[in-house]
Specification:
Elements (H helix, E strand, L loop, with lengths): L2 H5 L1 E9 L5 E10 L7 H15 L5 H5 L3 E6 L1 H4 L12 E5 L7 H12 L3 E7 L7 H6 L2 E5 L5 H11 L5 E5 L4 H10 L3 E2 L17 H14 L4 H8 L3 H11 L13 H23 L9 H20 L4 H13 L2 H5 L3 H5 L6 H9 L2 H15 L2 H10 L5 H17 L8
Parallel strand pairs: 2-3, 3-4, 4-5, 5-6, 6-7, 7-8
Antiparallel strand pairs: 1-2
Helix pairs in contact: 9-10, 9-12, 11-12, 12-13, 12-14, 13-14, 13-18, 13-20, 14-17, 14-18, 17-18, 18-19
Length: 417
């Protein structure tokens, strides 16, 4: 495979959650940046090689942590030897709806299942008799709920349930759809709704979150340590949450942190600022590592910070602003308020504000790269990359993997020494 083919592949991911809205897996999206290879067979081989390499060179397996990666498999990829290089325990092979249930396909799926792979069937909207044997081999059935009426979805679920398959609802876009699928017995969920897992109309920041916002303002204004401690004193729960998070693996700190003053001394203000920003999403959540919105915010912020470092090495201010913009971009999902209303009282620099409110400037382009890599929007990703010629798809993939690994480390307790 040529180097250019490998370089032209983008890696994206979408969260998959359980009934309690805890993160359990990612669908890994591999997008060919040049859209089509000249030779389709070579293209499949190239894609297969890159996906296999992603688990070795990029360290995707480590970045997934305890979460599995769902990987789309078309008919040609299904028969590629590269498939067998993937770590069986870490992936789910998602057989695309375009794969015909031929005898050869059935035999290949049987062999993969015997070899220890978990199979899923993608985009099911009806039960066609021709697919009965293929359906019997898969453990997970992904139901595309968008084209189905409530009655059709109920009828399809009633047919699937006796088969003992794990049902995954995909393209869940609203609370109503989520609740309907819960009632019908779906156990896994995927869709844009999960970028905003607890939307309640008109919800405001709670007291702890407001305190965090004030603290972020104090830090950005370079306030004294004593001033920061004073601001945290009325919030014991928040202080405990902060200490627990800074003592996590994700903080990269070897000392046990015992006080806010100690945290500032050991971590430095820059690192502390990051944890304050993330804690806005973690407040009141006892297990930050399973909070999808926190993980998404952490990954997006860290990805933008790493990409800013690639673009302008040594420019700490740009990296800080990129992290801030990434985190803040998910605030509307957290509190159901427009971004302009959220940023108004924060005293943000104009380039962070412009990126968030208008999507402009270098930070706006980085934000578009982060968002489009989350939903596999290649057209938008390509457009954003054109504004930042210093970034290659390979650099984005590397940063994406590092960011995911960093986010997965958050909230995971260190083993006792």
């Amino acid at each position: 495979m040529s180097e250019t083919a490998a370089d032209q592949l983008f890696l994206g991911r979408q969260p998959i959650l359980d009934r309690e809205q805890r993160l359990v897996a990612y669908e890994l999206l591999f997008r060919n940046g040049s859209r089509n290879f000249a030779d389709v067979t070579d293209g499949v081989q190239a894609t297969a090689t890159v996906i296999a390499n992603a688990f070795t060179e990029l360290g995707v397996e480590a970045a997934l942590g305890n979460h599995r990666g769902f990987i789309n498999v078309d008919e040609q990829f299904l028969f590629s030897d590269m498939l067998e290089l993937l770590p069986r325990h870490a992936v789910v092979l998602e057989i695309l709806e375009t794969v015909p249930p031929t005898e050869a396909v059935i035999e290949r799926c049987k062999a993969l299942k015997t070899a220890g792979f978990t199979l899923a069937l993608d985009d099911v909207i009806q039960l066609e008799p021709a697919f009965a044997e293929l359906l019997s081999l898969v453990e997970i059935v992904k139901v595309d709920i968008q084209p189905l009426s409530r009655v059709q979805l109920m009828q399809l679920t009633m047919k699937l349930k006796p088969m003992g398959k794990q049902l995954l609802a995909e393209k869940v876009d609203s609370r109503e759809q989520m609740e309907q699928c819960l009632k019908l017995g779906f156990t896994l969920f995927q869709g844009y709704y999960f970028a905003k897992p607890t939307i309640i109309a008109g919800k405001k920041l709670d007291h702890s979150q407001l305190s965090l916002m004030k603290l972020m303002g104090l830090l950005l204004g370079d306030a004294a340590t004593a001033e920061l401690e004073t601001a945290l004193k009325p919030e014991p729960g928040l202080t405990i949450n902060l200490l627990r998070m800074t003592n996590s693996v994700g903080a990269g700190c070897t000392e046990k942190i015992t006080s806010l003053g100690h945290a500032i001394t050991v971590l430095g203000r820059r690192q502390l600022q990051r944890w304050l920003q993330l804690l806005v999403f973690a407040t009141g959540n006892h297990n930050p590592s399973s909070n999808p919105l926190l993980l998404m915010a952490a990954t997006r912020g860290r990805l933008m910070e790493l990409l800013a470092g690639e673009l302008q090495p040594g420019d700490i201010a740009l990296s800080d602003q990129a992290f801030m913009a990434g985190i803040m971009s998910l605030m509307p999902a957290l509190v159901s308020l427009p971004i302009a209303e959220i940023v108004a009282p924060l005293g943000l620099t104009s380039n962070v504000r412009d990126a968030l409110c208008a999507g402009t400037g270098t930070l706006g382009a980085l934000l578009q790269i982060a968002e489009s890599s989350e939903n596999g929007d290649l057209a938008r990703l390509t457009k954003a990359l054109a504004e930042l010629p210093g970034l290659s798809p390979k650099a984005i993939n590397r940063a994406q993997t590092q960011a995911l690994q960093w986010a997965n480390d958050i909230g995971q307790e260190k083993p006792e020494q």
